[in-house]
């Protein structure tokens, strides 16, 4: 026989297989089973049912949690796909005991346990710290945009409203001039009048949205999900959420995350550094961040004796950078409280001021007619001026330190960039299924937990992890619960 032939479908076997026979001893699904069984879900905040009430009995919370973690680790997020998978996937049948929850039950579990799922991720992070897999010596911070569960045409801002209003008004005028005023066909007139009424209704709705934006002081709104915003993503504007993450250098594991709706990263540095400090509260950390996070007030807020920030400053205007007259080319003389320009002239202190609630000093050049480079330096008639904020010494120290430790700083990309590549390309999670910041954060909790779980299995191995979860880890987990809850 030239081919390998499988078993006959109707063949009866003398010794039927058990589900356990189909799951090898080193199958990662056994780690999920051991880990969830080691948890006290009630202490973590999961809604637990006694099963003593009359009516249909509930599913065990452990089984539903196992279902979620397994599916997220295997690129499945939809509750309907989970429902289908539970009836045909042998590994999943083994894991949850062949139960068949419907998509409503599966979806409800996630909705009513949002806070507990977030706590579960924190517990997992503390467990990684206990295993010595994360140390906080060097962490990297970055963010990525992921598309929201919303159609693009449900998003409005001032420019979109203006363009649509102009279009609808032009179409109404076109129908009136080109059709209603030139034809006697009553049926055609009726069709055109219906279209005009439709456009007038749209104009009315757009004006209502415009007025609502004005009253609330907002620049944009999405009718499907009020929490999302239009952000630049892959070279175009899309309705997205901004996923922020902190990754530890030792094993490239996620320390913490948060989903926000900020259109850029400038206001997130202190938030993410504080999250890292909460995990590594007893030690010094060095945090790496790209230029997108450069914000003076954010840097000043988090830099202290045990937190070091390495971050590249934003570039000045291209023309001044090329000419050599960017602010970075001016040296500050701390003794004389003056700036020295690239030509060697002094910019002396002139007066104090305040910008966005921050105090600053203004320094002005008086020799601009003598240096011969005024056109390259400034277009101001009174010569070049430079402002120095009160806390700019800290920024100077951070910038100088970043240059000095550039060999460390350049590790940033290799620490954190692959995380988002894995989530988007390998897992395929390029868009969200849920709506609202709270629900999306819950969804990302499962995504990050799945990512860390897969890396944990690769680092330690299936059998060793099962031994830890089944054996000596229970006392450690109890301590973690106490830390999390109290």
TrEMBL record:
Keyword DNA damage: no
Domain Transposase InsH N-terminal: 19-110
InterPro entries xrefs: IS1182_transpos (IPR047629), Tnp_DDE_dom (IPR025668), Transposase_InsH_N (IPR008490)
Domain Transposase DDE: 340-457
Coiled-coil region list: 189-216
Keywords: Coiled coil
Protein name, per record: IS1182 family transposase ISPa7
Organism whose genome encodes this protein: Neobacillus rhizosphaerae
